[in-house]
Design goal:
- With 159 residues, this protein is of the alpha/beta class.
- The chain has three helices and seven strands.
- The protein has a seven-stranded mixed β-sheet, sandwiched between helices.
- Helix 3 links the parallel strand 4 (94-102) and strand 5 (123-128).
- The model is unreliable at 6-18 (pLDDT under 50).
Amino acid sequence: ATGGGGGGGGGVRPRAGGAGAPAALEVDAELVAAMLEHARRELPLEACGLVGGRDARALLFLPAANRLASPTAYSIDPEELLWLFQRLEREGLELVGLFHSHPRGRAYPSATDVRLAYYPQAVYLIASLAGAGPELRGYRIAGGRVERVALVSPGTRRG
């Protein structure tokens, strides 16, 4: 899968508290369902989108069109990406995640995902539709390194 999303981030602020993605991201069941539904609708192609929030909490999923129309890669048109970032800014949200699906692969970043990971402050949310049921996992990708990020239900995070 091709990562990155396709361009600069406009004026959206990185997540507060440092340059790296959080160790855990709070995502409610409704947002997970919206991402998985977008992935199913786009089959057999990869689906993609942005996730806005604050304080390591995902609050809004913005689906996007995969301009590559590919089952193994994705990219968001730069104009659409700018509009999505502006929407996050209007909502007072930060970029907390980038979502894409692997229709026939596992929920783990591909070598291309790692190479094109342009947002180290964000959690890369990858949905796999290849198994018996859909799976959504989160990762921090920075400097060529991949680390798992826990996706937790609201109210279960410690802090």
